[in-house]
Amino acid sequence: MMVEGRFRDRIKIIETIEVLDVDFSNIAFTGKEEIDEFYDEVDRLLEATNRRWYFLVNYTDCTIADEVWDHFAERGKHSNVTYGLGTVRFGVSASTRQSIRARAMQTQFRANVFEAREEALVALGELRRRREVTGVPGTEALLRVQDVWVNFGGIQALRGVSFEVQTGEIFSIIGPNGAGKTCVVNVISGFYRPARGRILFQGKDRTDLKAYEVAELGIARTFQNVALFRGMSVLDNIMTGRLLKMKGNVLLDALYWGPSVKQEMEHRAFVERIIDFLEIEAIRKLPAGRLPYGLQKRVELARALAAEPRLLLLDEPMAGMNVEEKEDIARFILDINDEWGTTIILIEHDMGVVMDISSHVMVLDHGEKIAEGGPADVRADPAVIRAYLGEPR
């Protein structure tokens, strides 16, 4: 299926993988008229299909004049928002890559830039997989944090932080101690209220909601320090994560009769699934306070999962663990994301783990966002190296 016009050989639909293949290679965009001609053809074709597509865009040896970059970006964004399910780009020169990422930071869209077509196709496959698992298009952000400021007296803990988290990804937040990482999680989960800015979850503003109201929306979290009921068994601790799902009756619950018994058995069966999943069957009846630290962190993860969250906030889940325990938790995080379709925001100091399991990374320093992108890009960012990883030798 092709479009008629001057650029007909550069705009193709590949129906088998739901892709619009756009070829900008060797084109020099110097005026708005040429940009409009290209995107008008794209929009006409897509409008006729009456559906959305993934965009695969080839930028090899494409040049865009500085004075028309904003217009080019605006036309591309319109097509993406109106007809797109997700966009990946490849063959991008260093200067074009920098321009795309700068605009991505400003206007809150994902750059998704890759070196080769093969890498871009793999990324498209990941977008399609997320959509199949969650039923949500890859371009529809699950969470949007917009220009958030948090103050404690004269101290500015967060200063204009903005980012978005896509459905089905593992989004990591890194930075030095005191950078504001936990503050971000506290704002998202309703423990703190921002002095300025907005937080949108599934497209709705939840900035002013209380913590329990945020939890009811489908956001669960773990804490830096273990926050379990030490005298209760592992099973009972995890059962507390089901409280928001329980619809009780005071009289029936007191008598433990009829629907009350049935409801508890259903919730207990769900909790047993989590226990099996996290491989903690052997400790299910032990008091949480008697467990080693690493297992206590795993129980806390289980309690958060018991709430069946759409978004799971993990605040340093591997802190204080040995190498083997870290490997177990990293494996569980990947399995939760893959098998349960749970979107995850991860705060973690172990850079090896972050770079290995994250799909997207944001870096904070002194309450400000200094970098955002794929793990490889963040690892090589000079600002990150200076602020967090140390100067290269």
Written description of the protein model:
This protein has 393 residues and is of the alpha/beta class. The protein folds into 2 domains: 8-134, Transcription Regulator spoIIAA (2-Layer Sandwich), CATH 3.30.750; 141-218 and 309-389, Rossmann fold. It has helices at 32-49, 69-83, 94-107, 117-134, 181-188, 211-217, 234-239, 250-255, 259-277, 293-306, 323-339, 351-357, 375-380, 382-389, and strands at residues 11-14, 19-23, 28-29, 53-58, 63-64, 84-90, 113-114, 141-152, 155-166, 170-174, 196-201, 204-205, 219-221, 311-315, 343-347, 360-365, 368-373. The strands form 4 sheets. A 6-stranded mixed beta sheet has the order 13-14-15-10-16-17, sandwiched between helices. The protein has a 5-stranded mixed beta sheet with strand order 1-2-4-6-7, sandwiched between helices. A 4-stranded antiparallel beta sheet has the order 9-8-11-12, covered by helices on one side. Helix 1 (32-49) runs parallel beside helix 2 (69-83). The mean pLDDT is 85.
What keywords describe this structure?
single chain, 393 residues, alpha/beta, Transcription Regulator spoIIAA, Rossmann fold, 2 domains, 6-stranded mixed β-sheet, 5-stranded mixed β-sheet
